[in-house]
Structures are given as C-alpha cells and as structure tokens.
Design a protein that fits this description.
The protein is of the alpha+beta class and 262 residues long. It folds into 2 domains: 8-72, Arc Repressor Mutant, subunit A, CATH 1.10.10.10; 82-251, Beta-Lactamase (2-Layer Sandwich). 45% of the residues lie in helices and 20% in strands. The chain contains 11 helices and 9 strands. A 6-stranded antiparallel β-sheet has the order 6-5-4-9-8-7, with helices on both faces. The protein has a 3-stranded antiparallel β-sheet with strand order 1-3-2. The longest helix has 16 residues, at 236-251.
Length: 262
C-alpha cells in the first residue's frame, strides 16, 4: 500500500485504493492485515465509505467492493477528464491501419492508467486493460510520458517507482531509467523491451500540447513471435500522426454542456 496520507479525505482515499487493489470483493480482516491504520480507525472509514455508496457491502459473504457511486464518479471522470472520448476515432483508425494492439494511457500520480485500448486483429493476452493501473517505469507509455515531465515533477515520479524486476530487461534503478528517458526525449519515442511481460514489446509516443505539456501517450503493442522492435519502430510516423491529431482535438475540445451554451 502507498504511504499513509494526511487528512481524513486522504486516508479515506487510501482505503478505497486498498479495496480496489485486490481486484475482487475483500473481507475486513484482509484490509486490516495490510492497513497502516488502527482497527477502529479503519472500521470507521470503511463504514463511512459504505454509507455514502463509495463501497458496497455484501452481507452474505461479508465482503466489501467498490460501490455504485464510485462507478458513477469513475464514468463521469472518464467522460470529462480522460482523453478516451476525444481519442476514440483516432485510435480506431490507428488500430485498423497497423493491425496490432493500441493503448491510450495517462499518468495517474506516478503510475500509468490505461484509459482505452483496441485489440489486434489477432488478440494477444496481456496485462493491460482499459481502466487498469500499471507501473510507469517499465511500460512504453509510462516512459514516453515521464520523458517529457518537468524536472521537478520527474524527480518526484522517479522516486515513487518500485523498480521491481519483472524480467531481465526491467529497469531496477532510477539512474538507468533516467538515461533511457533522455534518449526518448531526444528521439520522440521509446520502447517496452519485454520489461513488464516476457514476449510483449511495444513502441510508444507521447501526446503533448503545443507547449510540450504531457497529456498522455499512445503505444502499439505486439509480441516477439509476431514482430520485433525494428518492425514497431517503422510505425512511429503513423503513431505520431495520431498523437498530433489527438492533441489538436484535445486543445479545442468543448464539453457538451459548454458547447450547447455557446
């Protein structure tokens, strides 16, 4: 679990994060085992979150899960705060053109959240799914976004990475990761060299504003049995064209309510 937050709201969000991290309904005793909070404090947060609909309690199983209210808020965030609605048509076309899996991602604090995905014509089983959170330091989209962060923000994000070794090619130090981020910034794109999952490779480009602020990242992902890094690198101009189109649309995006009032 992440470091203990300050303030009541921060602590409640910690509890929501902990429940969500299980990926299944969870018993209170399981939460208590991994919680930094005393039992009484944790119980109070869980009860408050349940009474407000942020958590749902199943009395038959004695388990807690994300509540319907949280789902509604997440859906609203997807529509108004993510690139997914803006980028949908663009990644549809990119996926059709390249025939491989396309990911659209944004940074969530120091992690990657996959906000949309298009499967390859011949789908491959992999970790990433829309709405799923993944590590930034060993994913192509994560590195593509980190490479363009301001220095002070990057230092903070690098300090929050776990540097767990998933494969032989995973970065396990901030020093080696920073060196690659410098290369990505110089080249405008980066790779996942089987760093998160064996056999899974990708090429990724950032989605930037005109002032080079990071909006998100796009990747085309495949397997070592279907292609290689050189084959993916050949797709960079096409991916960059899509990233530019998404950035342009994002800069002129008006939410439906605002548009109807203009």
């Amino acid at each position: 679990m992440a470091a203990q937050s300050d303030g009541t709201v921060g602590k409640a969000i910690d509890v929501l994060d902990q429940v969500a991290s299980f990926g299944r309904p969870v018993r209170f005793a399981e939460l208590q085992d991994g919680s930094p909070y005393p039992k009484a404090t944790l119980y109070r947060f869980v009860q408050t979150l349940t009474s407000t609909g942020m958590l749902a309690f199943d009395p038959d199983r004695g388990t807690y899960a994300p509540g319907v209210r949280l789902v509604r808020l997440a859906h609203a965030a997807w529509r108004t705060a993510s690139l997914a609605p803006i980028a949908a048509a663009h990644i549809d076309q990119l996926s059709a053109d390249v025939g491989e899996t396309v990911h659209l991602a944004q940074l969530d604090a120091a992690q990657v959240i996959y906000v949309d995905k298009r499967n390859a014509a011949d789908p491959v089983q992999m970790y990433s799914q829309s709405g799923k959170v993944g590590p930034a330091y060993c994913t192509g989209v994560g590195k593509a976004m980190m490479a363009y962060l301001p220095d002070d923000t990057l230092a903070d994000v690098l300090g929050q990475q776990s540097y767990h070794r998933f494969t032989d090619t995973t970065h396990i130090t901030a020093k080696s990761l920073r060196a690659e981020l410098n290369d990505i910034r110089a080249n405008g794109y980066g790779f996942d060299r089987e760093e998160h999952e064996p056999g899974i490779i990708c090429v990724a480009v950032p989605i930037l504003t005109d002032t080079h602020r990071v909006l998100g990242a796009l990747s085309v992902t495949s397997t070592t049995t279907r292609t290689n890094l050189a084959g993916l690198e050949a797709l960079v101009p096409r991916i960059q064209k899509t990233a530019t189109a998404i950035s342009k649309d994002a800069s002129s995006w008006h939410f439906p309510a605002a548009a109807s009032q203009s």
